[in-house]
Predict the structure of tRNA threonylcarbamoyladenosine dehydratase.
Amino acid sequence: MAKWKERAEILFKAEGIKKLNDSNVLVVGLGGVGSFAAEFLARAGVGSMTIVDGDVVDITNINRQLPALHSTVGQPKVDVVGDRLMDINPELKLTRLKEFLSPERAFEIVTDEFDYVLDCIDSVTPKLNLIISAKRKKVKIVSSMGAGGKVIASKVKVSDISKTENCFLAKTIKKRLKEVKIDKGVKVVFSSEIQREDSLIRTDGSNFKKSFYGTCSYMPGLFGLYAAETAIRHLVGDQI
């Protein structure tokens, strides 16, 4: 066992560390949620990971995204995050896909080779198709709902999507999932805090994104933490 995994082995035991090392995880979206989730997975000892993001670091990302620094503005997030993950675990089997997940690709990218999918997309259409793809192919998934317009950390939780409240993104996803006969059985990270509607900004609709909320530094990272925890606890199983 690598020396850097010593503290984790005390907690998860050798069997748990082996399960993590043998696991293969897909992380889609490397913004405020996905970048932190991917790092937590790598530090936990996940052996194989595929990361997907077509965006570059923007100056406005600095307040909340792990790869965002003044020195990385303009660089592809998949490169910045990928290099960081390899520096954490040089033995990580990492696949980097530098692309925005179109609806069609959402159905192609999910396969039974993955033990878990982390949906960290903030656009409705690709998020919806990624969830449907995982459900249809019976691959475990945890999906991040809206961290924007929220500030109370204690209101964040993991639940079935059918039990979400006070989240406009979750409301939209639930409605669209019901149209394809999926009304439960999707784990999501969400906040029950009432969303601050006055923090909503409309966009030009590019990259399947029509609007966004103002976001503080810690909430997306917290969503990423809960998503990573959900996957890691499943992967190690009864070793916890």
Observations:
- The chain is about 35% helix and 15% strand.
